[in-house]
Amino acid sequence: MRSRKTVIDETDLSILRFVQDNCHAPLDNVAKRLDIPKSTLHYRIKRLEKDGVIEGYHAKVNPVDLGYDYVAIILVRAKYGPRYHERVGKKIVAIPGVWAVYYVLGEYDFIVLLRATNRDDYMHKLELLSNITDIERTNTQIAAKIIKEDPRLQL
Amino acid sequence: MRSRKTVIDETDLSILRFVQDNCHAPLDNVAKRLDIPKSTLHYRIKRLEKDGVIEGYHAKVNPVDLGYDYVAIILVRAKYGPRYHERVGKKIVAIPGVWAVYYVLGEYDFIVLLRATNRDDYMHKLELLSNITDIERTNTQIAAKIIKEDPRLQL
Amino acid sequence: MRSRKTVIDETDLSILRFVQDNCHAPLDNVAKRLDIPKSTLHYRIKRLEKDGVIEGYHAKVNPVDLGYDYVAIILVRAKYGPRYHERVGKKIVAIPGVWAVYYVLGEYDFIVLLRATNRDDYMHKLELLSNITDIERTNTQIAAKIIKEDPRLQL
Amino acid sequence: MRSRKTVIDETDLSILRFVQDNCHAPLDNVAKRLDIPKSTLHYRIKRLEKDGVIEGYHAKVNPVDLGYDYVAIILVRAKYGPRYHERVGKKIVAIPGVWAVYYVLGEYDFIVLLRATNRDDYMHKLELLSNITDIERTNTQIAAKIIKEDPRLQL
Amino acid sequence: MRSRKTVIDETDLSILRFVQDNCHAPLDNVAKRLDIPKSTLHYRIKRLEKDGVIEGYHAKVNPVDLGYDYVAIILVRAKYGPRYHERVGKKIVAIPGVWAVYYVLGEYDFIVLLRATNRDDYMHKLELLSNITDIERTNTQIAAKIIKEDPRLQL
Amino acid sequence: MRSRKTVIDETDLSILRFVQDNCHAPLDNVAKRLDIPKSTLHYRIKRLEKDGVIEGYHAKVNPVDLGYDYVAIILVRAKYGPRYHERVGKKIVAIPGVWAVYYVLGEYDFIVLLRATNRDDYMHKLELLSNITDIERTNTQIAAKIIKEDPRLQL
Amino acid sequence: MRSRKTVIDETDLSILRFVQDNCHAPLDNVAKRLDIPKSTLHYRIKRLEKDGVIEGYHAKVNPVDLGYDYVAIILVRAKYGPRYHERVGKKIVAIPGVWAVYYVLGEYDFIVLLRATNRDDYMHKLELLSNITDIERTNTQIAAKIIKEDPRLQL
Amino acid sequence: MRSRKTVIDETDLSILRFVQDNCHAPLDNVAKRLDIPKSTLHYRIKRLEKDGVIEGYHAKVNPVDLGYDYVAIILVRAKYGPRYHERVGKKIVAIPGVWAVYYVLGEYDFIVLLRATNRDDYMHKLELLSNITDIERTNTQIAAKIIKEDPRLQL
Predict the structure, then answer these.
(1) How does DSSP classify residue E3?
(2) CA distances (Å), C155 to each of C1, C16, D93, D94, E27, in order?
(3) Cα–Cα distance, C67 to D120 (Å, whole number)
(4) Under 8 Å between Cβ of B48 and B54
(5) C26 and F CB contact within 8 Å
(6) Would an 8 Å CB–CB cutoff place H136 in contact with chain A?
(7) Given D130, D141, D142, which is nearest F80 (Cβ)?
(8) How close C142 gets to chain A, by Cα (Å)?
(9) For residue C140, what is the nearest residue in chain A, using CA coordinates?
(10) Is the Cβ–Cβ distance between E83 and E134 less than 8 Å?
(11) How many CB pairs under 8 A join D and E?
């Protein structure tokens, strides 16, 4: 994880809070809501973008409407070897549907979050995962219910 | 999970693909890139918004710049009881820093993704989690490395 | 398990082998195939029915055509108590979709085979299971694929 | 699992319910009980057979009378490899006494249901299972009591 | 375990070795075999008995001939409480068929060796065990084969 | 386990009960106690010995007096292979101090009971055990207290 | 853990390195070895003491000579409750022989390092540990060999 | 562990108790406090040093001030082989930050205590550990809180 370079003050925080929630509001409205001059707002946003604090602007698409009914969290054990977490991690990331891969400390080596459209799709993806050299064991927990899934920061 | 109501065709997919990646590009550019009339683009986007396929537009904020150095995946076991997954799930969601909660089938009952700024912050949050009535056991896997974390769909 | 009372010879075996595979064939054909007089066949079958060796005649219905897409094997731990395996076993059996319940020796107390039509149906049934007093923990293994499922004896 | 092709209505359901329970009753009786014309009954049954909804007609033989006293549920872990679940699954199925094999998602890879006549017979079969290349570990749960075992659908 | 009080020399060892293997041989033969005077032999044996080094003389009865076909090793977890290992240990010992009970350090609290005549007998005994207040969980390993079972010391 | 050949009646049982407890009592006393003629007693005992029901007569030596302070129960997992339980079982038996080896069904493959004089002696024996080809893992439970250890049958 | 207040430079490091290894050498020798004026050395040491970087000066006593033959690492699970890690942690610390207690993230709640003189002493201490309200389970790993045990920092 | 050679009496104990707590007090003060002649004190201390009862005199340095924020307890499983615990133990000890390594009996083979300055430092050390040939699996428990860490004996 890169070290923190940017100093962020309260005004920045209020801007980030807003645009994280809605980045389509016209700048005028935002400036009014946050009670800062529009030029300041514009300047600060550009700076936050330049420093990488704001990484991008994305439409949030509902997975269910795109047919992604299958959500799984897979606990993975791999075989130890030189720089294994990089080699194996790279291959896991290459599997379609895999949207998060964490290299963890604990009983397991990786925790993987995966989306699939249906069981066959999931089985195919799990097969790709199992085929990765040096993956010893996978333990799948199927999500019966998504109680919450919102990666936005709580600012 | 709500049932799928909207029918989505190839043109919709190309639009979603684009705006999921960048929702700040001017409509003119998008229309040109996707080779569809601007009015069609505008109409389809409004429909996708109305149907809930597009749920919102968000700036992606880098967690590290906001001090969130601590990422944990917590495997939770709860005590069984009537509608326990709803009662307990609701309380887990209320904990600051918790951004995903899945009710799963398998050895565990819930899988929780959590962000914290430092160890004290994490300990405080873990304490809140452990204090929830009916949580029996938590098994924390600290993420030593985030190999990937991108919830955008692969369209 | 009741003790074995009936003595079964080779002829009985050949009859059972046949009717286990197909109990709709006319008796004439069966007698010819097995090379035994029709009256003997008739007599022996009646005796096997009377002794409970043949418990019934059933049409085998394809679960998939009836919408049963969800197959799960649930490993169950219960809280110990007087005659707990009977009390708890009885309640598990009462859950719709449960078609096999074994009280086992080993890490677990019961192994349960369950059919459901879809995830919601499964969740509802799992909820009924979890609500049984004295069930401590359930560990679900979803069947990704039924490689074989044929309870007929290999005679 | 093949996709569902046949549309099944209430009348079909009532027929299936009946013949699943007893497929030796004369058609006249069935027609009377279900209050449908005999010809309709005959037609529908033929159609259900042709579509594979009814897969066959079998006599149910009591395992205990055939000496099958030993019932085991074996949890199996296999070594990962290309299409391993097919290769290994095929070999497990070939073992006498194995009547169900499920490829599962979870801690284990396969769950196997096995019948044997006595301990020596079981040991021999377990040996065959352990000898399968790529089976790493088996964890046997002996059924001390069969509380229920009835694969018929609950229509 | 009481502290060792008796000093045992080589001659004692040779005597113990002999009588552990066969305590029905006439003293004359033993004395000759071990090349020690009969009076010395007699004296030493009396001393070993008096000091409790020799605890008794027992005929070894073959369990199989007495119908004990069922051998189980049960790993037990108990609920903690004041002097729990004594209270619980005492109750385990009271169960018929239990011939060894060890209070252990490790994942489990007690390891119990049990003999039973058949499955019903075992189930009854396991029921008594499960009914002991404060026993939380039992994990049974059925002995498929006794490769060795000889408590005599290797002197 | 060899099949049971000998028929044992109540009188035999009373004799076995007695000699299992004390095989040094003069035959006269035993005959009087059991209220059977001395000749009958003598005959029956010879028959029980000939049939292998009585396998021998042994002095019971106190392990503590011989310096055996260390008692361990070792749960063993072995690598699967053809007739592995025989090959591995044989090697385990060859280790000094090992007095019981059970091939079990369950999470483990073998359960081994071992005596040692002190920690170094135990470590040496454990090393021999770990060195056996195809032993994958051993899980030792040290007996903190022997609550009971008496292999005599409860007749 | 208190935040770091003191700035430590290379000279401080060389001093700490020396006195951590041997704090009985006369200051003259130390000053000569480290090639710094004695007055500077004296000043810096006083400052390091005042800031708490040097917490004390201790003779290292060999545990074996004091009869401490028994070393155990105990993995502890406790029952969750408000501020449970403080309440339970405090009670664990009060047990004689306990010299380290870590509140950990993972499968266990606490890891405890314990010294005892012999098995009875250990059992007594383990009993005190088990008796602590809210301790659910302890899993003891006896150290068969101390390969290394030196808490001095590697400066 | 070397056998105990030195006989230690009450006076020795009182001396060890004192110098273990503070070895910088002038001998005069110690002698006065313990009410023994200074010459006796000097003689006894020299003897305790010569016999290795006192192994050294060390300044206790606060790890936090040296930047060691990361404390981990790692449970290690290794692959069995001839004298594996020595070979593997030696390599673990060579890793910087490792200050204790215990070869244990139980589920695990080694328990390792490790200090690191930050996550990257820890990851690097964990990598070195994982790279050791024959280490199969490591299970890390991060210390969220050091409740106690004081290796001094309780005399």
Answers:
(1) P
(2) 20, 8, 16, 15, 61
(3) 40
(4) yes
(5) no
(6) yes
(7) D130
(8) 9
(9) A141
(10) no
(11) 11
Residue among C98, C96, C102, C90 at smallest CA distance from C134: C90
Distance CA A41, CA C29 (A): 91
Residue E75 CA: distances (Å) to CA of C103, D75, D119, E130: 18, 19, 22, 12
The answer to whether chain G touches chain H by having 3 or more C-beta pairs less than 8 angstroms apart is: yes
CA distances from C43 to B136, C25, G3 (A): 61, 17, 92
The 10s digit of each residue's pLDDT in G22-56 is: 999 999 999 999 999 999 999 999 999 999 999 99
DSSP one-letter string for F135-147:
EEEEEEEEEEEEE
Nearest Cα neighbor of D13 from C59, E119, H52, F72 is: C59
CB contact under 8 A, D101 and C60: no
Both tokens of residue A77? 């054990």
How many angstroms separate the CA of residue B107 from the nearest CA in chain D? Answer: 8
Q: Assess H111–G contact: CB distance below 8 Å, yes or no.
A: yes
- At residue A40, the pLDDT reads 94
D108 DSSP assignment: -
Give yes or no for F127 touching H (CB within 8 A).
Answer: yes
- What does pLDDT average to in each consecutive run of 10 residues of chain F (155 residues)? 67 96 94 95 96 96 91 91 86 97 89 91 88 88 91 92
Smallest CA–CA distance, residue H7 to chain B, in Å, is 47
How many residues are listed for chain E in this entry?
Answer: 155
Are the C-beta atoms of D72 and D116 separated by less than 8 Å? yes
Annotate C82-98 with three-state secondary structure. Answer: CCHHHHHHHHHHCCCCE
Residue E100 in tokens: 């060894």
Angle between helices F10-21 and F27-34 (to 10 degrees): 130
G2 at interface of H, judged by CB pairs closer than 8 A: yes
Read off φ and ψ for residue G28, nearest 5 degrees. -55, -50
Torsion sign (Cα): E89, E92, E97, E101: negative
Any CB–CB contact under 8 A between H62 and chain G?
yes
Report the residue of chain B nearest D106, measured CA to CA. B106
Neighboring chain H residues of A85 at a CB cutoff of 8 Å = 127
CA distance F54 to F132: 34
**Helical residues (DSSP H) of D35-94, grouped into ranges:** 38-50, 84-93
Q: Where are the beta strands (DSSP E) in chain F?
A: 54-61, 70-78, 98-105, 110-116, 135-149
C47 inside 8 A of chain B by CB: no
Q: Which parts of A38-122 are beta strand (E)?
A: 54-61, 70-78, 98-105, 110-116
Q: Which residues contact C29 (CB under 8 A, 6 or more apart)?
A: none
Pairing relationship of beta strands C98-105 and E54-61 according to DSSP bridges: unpaired
Residue type, H136: E
b/e code B86-98 from CB counts within 10 Å (16+ = b): eebbebbeebebb
- The first and second tokens of residue E129, run together, are 């065990």
Residue A82: predicted pLDDT: 74
Chains H and C share 3 or more Cβ pairs within 8 Å: no
* Chain E neighbors of G72, CB-CB under 8 A: 105
B-interface mutation test, from A57, A98, A125, A155, most B Cβ less than 10 A away? A57
Residue A39 in tokens: 């030029």
What residues of chain F lie within 8 A of the CB of E143, using their CB? Answer: 102-104, 111
pLDDT in tens, E2-18: 445 568 999 999 999 99
Q: Do A137 and D77 touch (CB under 8 A)?
A: yes
Amino acid of residue F64: V
Which amino acid, residue E103? Y
Structure tokens at D47: 């159609």
**ipTM entry:** 0.91
